[in-house]
Amino acid sequence: MMHNYFHIYALGQCPYCIEAIAVLNDSKANYVLTVLDRCSAHMDFLKEKHQYMTVPMIFEHDAETHEVIKFVGGCSDLKELFSEKEAKENEACPLP
Which CATH number is 9's domain given? Predict the structure, then answer.
């Protein structure tokens, strides 16, 4: 079974972007990183399209089709997503 992956649009010096990348690394999640430091037009396009005005912008993709499954949001949304997944895993596999 293939796992989904994340696509993160970030700015190189953004502390929330750096934190989100660390969360993905710590969780061993697969991800694609697009740094938008030199492409403000694309960043403006993404902000308009998703009505989301800050970075990072994080999307979850299906690993087989590469289709976007959902727009996760920013760093705090990503952390919340991983906390929810961890809680579900703990419910499914209680400690002895």
Answer: 3.40.30.10
The boundaries of the domain holding residue 50 are 5-92
Q: How many domains, the chain?
A: 1
Residue 1: predicted pLDDT: 46
Confidence (pLDDT) at 3: 84
pLDDT at 59: 98
Q: Concatenated DSSP letters for 39-81?
A: -HHHHHHHHHHHT--SS-EEEEE-TTT--EEEEEESHHHHHHH
Does the pTM surpass 0.90? The reply is no
